[in-house]
Amino acid sequence: MRTPIDAVDGRLLQALTRDPRATVVALAEEVGLTRNTVQARLARLEERGVLDTFERRIDPAALGYPLTAYVTVRVVQRELGPVAAALARIPEVLEVQGLSGEADLLVQVVARDADDLYRIAGLLLATEGVERTTTSLVMRRLVDYRLTPLLERVAGKPEPRTR
Fold first, then answer.
1. DSSP assignment letter at 135
2. Three-state SS for 91?
3. Over the stretch 80-91, which tens digit does the pLDDT of each residue have?
4. For residues 70 and 74, what is the distance between their CA atoms, to the nearest angstrom?
5. What is the Cβ-side half-sphere exposure of residue 85, based on CA atoms within 13 angstroms?
6. Is pTM beyond 0.85 here?
7. In the sheet that 105-111 helps form, which strands lie side by side, from edge to edge?
8. HSE-up of 100 (CA within 13 Å, CB side)?
């Protein structure tokens, strides 16, 4: 379990979230720290695993994959590692999460159309060690992935009052 970040790191991450291309000097000016302090804090955040890859979020639809689906997968427990490795080799698999409960894995996939989704679901089901799958098509994204509210809390920005 990671040690939580402090308010200064929270403000630094907020600035980085607002402008991912900001230079260390620009971040230092925005947060009110020296360049060396910002550089040291960023390095420490990377070492601790707080900062993940800087891969830009690209809409899969722009690449010809307008359908998104989540597939729950039940696997033979001793085959979990090989199943995860096999799923990682399928280009349309964007993410795999290990779960507790009825299903063992939650797999996010993208597809070109319904026939392509059927093909991908078949690949998942044909993976050695997979016992069962259930596919749910995403109809609409209601809340985008976000961390800003949590960063605001950590950085000490007052939370809006609710009624």
1. E
2. coil
3. 999 999 999 999
4. 13
5. 6
6. no
7. 93-98, 105-111, 67-75, 130-137
8. 0
Distances (CA, A) of 24 to 15, 129, 135: 11, 47, 44
> Would you mind telling me the total number of residues written for the chain in this entry?
163
Helices (H), the chain: 7-18, 24-31, 35-47, 80-88, 114-126, 148-155
Instruction: Quote the distance between the C-alpha of residue 87 and its chain's center.
Output: 17
Percent of the chain with pLDDT strictly greater than 70: 94
Number of Cβ within 10 Å of residue 154's Cβ equals 19
CB atoms within 10 A of CB 152: 16
Adjacent-strand bridge partners of 136: 70
Burial class (CB in 10 A: 0-12, 13-18, 19+), 45: middle
Two tokens, residue 144: 């985008």
Return the amino acid letter for 97. Q
What's the CA gap between 130 and 93, in Å, rounded?
15
Q: What is the pLDDT of residues 42-71, one digit of tens each?
A: 999 988 888 877 667 789 999 999 999 999
